[in-house]
Design a protein that fits this description.
The chain is mainly alpha-helical. 47% of the residues lie in helices and 6% in strands. It is built from 2 helices and 2 strands.
Amino acid sequence: MKKYLIILLLLSLIFFSAGCDSSQKPATGFEDEIYVVADSVEFDELKESLQKTFEVQINTPLPENYLR
């Protein structure tokens, strides 16, 4: 029984350490930009709702959009 517990512990340690992949690249791009990839027909239908959602102006000393 103790042998199975040690094997299970080792397998779980290998499993959890494999999830920590340090080779992932960091995020790139500006933090205030969203790229929308869509068909031109779909984008025409969604453009207004996307603008209403993401182009909200924030009240600061100089008006600026939340996202460009």
